[in-house]
Structure prediction request, 552 residues.
Amino acid sequence: MDNKWYKDICVYQIWPRSFCDGNGDGIGDLEGVYSKLDYIKDLGVDCIWFSPLYPSPNADFGYDIADYKNIHPEYGDLELFKKVLDGAHERGIKVIMDLVVNHTSDECDWFQKSRRRIEPYTDYYIWRKGRDGGKKPPNNWLSMFEGGAWEYDEVRGEYYLHVFAKKQPDLNHDNPKVREEVKEIMKFWLDMGVDGFREDVITFISKKEGLPNGFPIPSACGMEHYINGPHIHEYLKEYREVAKQYDCFCVGEAPMMTPETALKYITEGENQELDLMFHFQHMEADCIMMDFIHVPFSLIRMKKAFTRWQNMLKGKAWNTLYIENHDHPRIISRYGSEAYRTESGKMLAAMYMLQQGTPFIYQGQEIGMTNISLPDLDMYEDVFVKNNYNVFKKIFGKKRCEHLARISTRDNARTPVQWTGGENAGFTTGKPWFYINPNYKEVNAEKEMSDPHSLLNFYKKLIRFRKENEIVLKGDYKEYYENSKNLYVYERTYNNQRMLVICSFTEKGVAFEAPKGYDLSKGVKVLGNYESEHICGNGFKTRPYEMRVYMF
Ligand code: NOJ
Prediction:
């Protein structure tokens, strides 16, 4: 296996609008990021991933890009971006950008020219005539964000495809000119000095020829015709050629991905197309259909996903490790417990970060931010949850759907970062663009910094631990007690060392017995979320959300 630099780093994700406001307009910006570079450095991470910073009408908060080679005026400008980039590099921190090229904003100049058939933009998007003399959309596909996946455009007199919101028309990657544009965008940022990209829904960019009707399911009908499409590997290889000219890394986002298919993209060697891939399988232990339909949390389901990816990629490809990002509600509120915020936060951190792969930490995760609950659904901003609410209201009824919307909205992860217990949680001196979680007096970075036993300080310790112990990077993985509904137990082995990770996902006391071949009294407890260490026989009774890591 190659020893690439992206394998032993830890990445910190910034969703800029809610990170830190430097100019008092209530919106997070690059001045705010600059002011927090030392905080990020102090956390111990080695790389920042910026969710989109580009000019955008914000129909999907930056994932609808109007100008790929610029910075949104709300966040600053190119000069300020360069200052942040240099500031990060001076601190030994790399920077990767979000590359959103499955679609653009409808306000992107390319789209405006395409709808007017101005060359060379005429075929930059996926335009079709309607069926039945133009009255019906070209096929039955549904968008993930807003009803049908086709929108009729009066100017051009044709429908355009949008797999996400109406304001996010899909680019036509079958057009070589579009692919040239993508490569130019990559070079623009790489030449400026950025270190790679997170590639948004990159497995969606090749659509099946003829755009046939899809299997009728709510919200995403047609997806079998655009996920891992016919030319995807060809196109990604072209983009890889650009990346290869730089010392950069690319991580692709891939909803509905399985490890078998992922290997076609990320197996190391000549034909590799992406360095890493974000899949969603471990994020679906309490939901189906991308978060909205909730089912009771199943630890077994979560463990199966982690274990399958660890085993299947072993020796062939590299895992990404994450439990939060801007698309998922906060993990403590989902797989942990708000009542045991610090304990469960530490347990979850160790659980995923001690596996093999590159860990990602999402802003606010390190201080244990939790979900928000707003009284009125109109107060939410997320286009995704609004659509789901409308689709599923007919099936589940209004009341249940209101509840589902609250617990599943991406807005849970997008509330401003809570820096202090002071006004507006120290996020802004102005009026925050979105609601601040009312728990900010209790949950904030300042408080976490001053408490040696805080979650933040545990994250720092864990990040250091990863760096100091090769076993985390290189060790083999094996799961124990696969059928336990409360405990996740795995070992890592490397050379003559063994590391046993024990995580309880319940507040109940569970009897843990060390697996065969282990003598707990001979192990050294190297990490844990409780101070004292009671051992009883060759095991112990777990305390709420207890986690222990032993080295042998
Ligand atoms: C995935 C992004 O993470 C999400 O935030 C966005 O809405 C969709 N892709 C569409 O770009």
User: Anything to note?
Assistant: The chain is about 30% helix and 15% strand. Residues 126 and 172 are 5 Å apart (CA to CA). The two ends are 26 Å apart (CA to CA).
